[in-house]
Design the sequence.
């Protein structure tokens, strides 16, 4: 092949351009600290990086959700533990009250204490959380309202039999939120509330109320009136309310433990995801630096070579 | 019989030829870096003795008449020109495609910001909202995050539109360029054929260089075929359409503003079809709106589908006490999305009127925004949908970039081959300088020898006995 001036120039310039381009790309990676500045820098890595980012951001949100959820559940647990103590105290009172040695005045005192315990339960159930009542359920209002001889929870008279509301409040913690019509699938979320109606009970059994507050009211009334005809039946209601409370407490504990596990798992996932993100998106500064230096050297060599190659011709040698 | 002064004339011819050789060498050296210059060469022939002479003579008598420059020719390979130009059309097709795809990738950059992160932010704000569904503060944050998503859609739409307008204006510059180039080539054709008619073929080398350069330029716009005519003119076809032949010249017209863009030859009045070149690339990537040719229009369409799905989902999310959906977003294309007045004026518009903590609508909205739904006839989540077309764009761009690399290296090889034949080698010309200089000296010596011979004949012969 005949080599002309243009051939030499073109070959030289093409190579110089390529070296400069490689150096510029490496410089961009160094100054941005990122391997990926555009999807086309590495399509498959970019695809993974986008997915990892999605997952990371979501898991951060879920962890925040779990923290808030645990705060709510702990508030409920504290109240329910106190309520447990109240019921235990009430049960020992009832054992005491049943004894025939008590005269009317003692029974009145016992009745007053029962009244007091009943009020305490109402207070515990109506306790205010950070921004709303702890047992607000989904209507957002103070749950228990005492009327003249009536008790209503979430606006429902407890003496009427109410099926406990099924729609609680649910929080998404990344279990794969799913819906069944208008209702959220319970297996795909975690419930954040505890229903006072479920624990305290509702409806009547042969003229005996099921609701714990109503039971306390009836018991107190019986003691005051010195009429213990319904005493046994009412005491049983206290026991079954106690059972329901223990179930609720166990449920709360189980939810909390589950959340702890989930949290741990997510934190480990997050570590792995962050590591992956670094690998995919961040520049490995040491190796990039070495590459950058070698590219710079190549570039300088081609520049030096240029000053030698380009002007050289026969004219440098003929007189 | 030999004439007395024949030798002097021979030596003179030798001097002239050497000088012409030096002239042409000088022309080559001075034009070594001139774009499009083809190296020239003197075609030298030895002068033959006149064998048709009326009076019979011995053959040897008329020999030694010297040398003549018959032509100053260009050294060029027409076939290589054709191959180079067809590769040039390929190369500029990929180059133009890559330019537009690069711009598109610059606009739809989901690596730094974009729709995905703003959607994520919106979902995060909804998660917080779901835990405190009666709080105006949270509703307010949801409003501002929704605004961000909408702004992102608006911005993308605006930038894509700007890109489209820019590309159309670039295309119209190209169209003008094609028309001007054709008219220049026609002018040169004219001058060259006139010189041919006058028998001055030697005089048009530089004009042919200019014309070749223009034809190379024309080849970047579309696949052309060049046919040389006997009168020195060239005839040009672009993708089987005759566009230049003698006095006939076609013109390219870009009809604006039409949807879709139409680029047509004036002679046929029909949209042009091309096999390669930057015009084809521009039209494909401005108008391309199908999975096979993903142009600006395609990405606009994808974005609009997404915007419309987003608006629909948001508008169905919250209901008032009469079970009527609250309209939150108006508009159904990426550029027209905006927050409804009712929500804009009152951020707590999305709260339940009775202060209820029922967060099912919020969870349902989260599920919609994150879960799969039907967007543009395919099942995917909004985020996946964005990923999908951004990744597809990156792949498309890289595919074109690698094709460009191949095509550039082929075109480069052909250019090197062409220059190997047609470009100036300074070493060679330097050697020529020495050769012609030496030849000139030698001819001068011949002149001297002839002079001495004549001196002998004139001054010293016939002096015997003086």
Sequence:
């Amino acid at each position: 092949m005949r080599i002309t001036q243009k051939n030499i120039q073109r070959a030289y310039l093409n190579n110089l351009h390529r070296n400069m381009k490689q150096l510029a790309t490496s410089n961009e990676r160094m100054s941005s600290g990122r391997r990926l500045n555009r999807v086309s820098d590495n399509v498959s890595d970019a695809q993974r990086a986008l997915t990892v980012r999605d997952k990371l951001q979501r898991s951060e949100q879920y962890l925040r959700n779990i923290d808030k959820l645990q705060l709510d559940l702990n508030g409920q647990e504290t109240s329910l533990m106190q309520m447990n103590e109240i019921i235990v105290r009430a049960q020992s009172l009832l054992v005491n009250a049943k004894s025939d040695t008590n005269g009317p005045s003692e029974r009145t005192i016992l009745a007053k204490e029962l009244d007091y315990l009943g009020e305490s339960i109402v207070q515990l159930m109506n306790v205010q959380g950070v921004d709303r009542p702890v047992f607000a359920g989904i209507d957002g209002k103070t749950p228990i309202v005492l009327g003249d001889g009536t008790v209503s929870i979430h606006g429902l008279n407890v003496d009427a039999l109410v099926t406990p509301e099924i729609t609680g409040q649910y929080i998404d913690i990344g279990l794969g939120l799913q819906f069944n019509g208008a209702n959220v699938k319970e297996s795909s979320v975690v419930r954040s509330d505890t229903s006072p109606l479920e624990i305290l009970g509702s409806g009547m059994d042969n003229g005996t109320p099921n609701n714990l507050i109503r039971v306390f009211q009836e018991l107190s009334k019986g003691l005051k009136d010195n009429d213990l005809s319904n005493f046994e039946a009412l005491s049983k209601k206290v026991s079954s309310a106690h059972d329901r409370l223990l179930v609720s407490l166990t449920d709360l504990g189980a939810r909390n433990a589950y959340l702890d596990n989930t949290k741990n798992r997510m934190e480990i996932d997050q570590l792995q995801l962050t590591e992956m993100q670094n690998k995919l998106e961040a520049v490995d500064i040491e190796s990039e630096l070495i590459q950058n230096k070698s590219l710079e050297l190549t570039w300088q060599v081609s520049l030096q070579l240029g000053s030698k190659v380009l002007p050289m011709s026969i004219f440098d040698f003929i007189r | 019989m030999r004439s007395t002064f024949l030798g002097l004339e021979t030596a003179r011819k030798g001097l002239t030829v050497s000088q012409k050789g030096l002239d042409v060498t000088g022309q080559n050296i001075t034009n070594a870096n001139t774009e499009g210059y083809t190296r020239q060469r003197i075609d030298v022939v030895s002068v033959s003795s006149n064998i048709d002479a009326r009076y019979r003579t011995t053959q040897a008598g008329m020999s030694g008449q010297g040398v003549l420059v018959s032509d100053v020719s260009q050294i060029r390979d027409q076939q290589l020109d054709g191959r180079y130009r067809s590769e040039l059309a390929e190369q500029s097709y990929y180059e133009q495609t890559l330019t537009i795809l690069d711009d598109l990738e610059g606009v739809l950059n989901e690596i730094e910001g974009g729709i995905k992160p703003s959607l994520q932010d919106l979902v995060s704000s909804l998660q917080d909202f779901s835990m405190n569904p009666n709080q105006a503060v949270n509703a307010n944050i949801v409003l501002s995050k929704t605004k961000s998503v909408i702004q992102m859609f608006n911005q993308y739409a605006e930038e894509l539109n700007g890109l489209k307008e820019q590309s159309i204006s670039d295309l119209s510059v190209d169209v003008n360029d094609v028309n001007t180039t054709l008219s220049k080539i026609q002018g040169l054709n004219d001058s060259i054929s006139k010189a041919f008619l006058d028998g001055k073929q030697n005089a048009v080398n530089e004009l042919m260089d200019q014309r070749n350069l223009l034809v190379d330029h024309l080849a970047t716009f579309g696949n052309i075929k060049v046919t040389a005519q006997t009168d020195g003119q060239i005839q040009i076809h672009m993708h089987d359409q005759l566009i230049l032949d003698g006095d006939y010249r076609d013109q390219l017209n870009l009809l604006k503003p039409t949807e879709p863009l139409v680029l047509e030859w004036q002679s046929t009045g029909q949209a042009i079809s091309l096999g390669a070149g930057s015009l084809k690339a521009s039209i494909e990537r401005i108008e391309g709106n199908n999975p096979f040719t993903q142009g600006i229009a395609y990405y606009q369409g994808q974005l609009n589908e997404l915007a419309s799905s987003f608006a629909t989902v948001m508008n169905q999310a919250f209901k008032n006490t009469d079970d009527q959906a609250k309209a939150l977003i108006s508009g159904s294309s990426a550029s027209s999305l905006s927050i409804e007045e009712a929500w804009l004026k009152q951020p707590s518009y999305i709260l339940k009127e009775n202060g209820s903590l029922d967060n099912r609508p919020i969870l349902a909205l989260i599920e919609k925004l994150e879960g799969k739904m039907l967007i543009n006839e395919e099942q995917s989540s909004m985020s996946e949908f964005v990923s999908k077309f951004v990744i597809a764009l990156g792949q498309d761009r890289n595919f074109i970039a690698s094709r460009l690399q191949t095509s550039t290296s082929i075109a480069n090889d052909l250019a090197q081959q062409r220059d190997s034949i047609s470009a100036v080698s300074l070493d060679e010309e330097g050697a020529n300088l020495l050769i012609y200089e030496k030849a000139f000296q030698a001819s001068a010596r011949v002149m001297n020898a002839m002079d001495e011979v004549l001196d002998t004949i004139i001054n010293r012969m016939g002096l015997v006995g003086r």
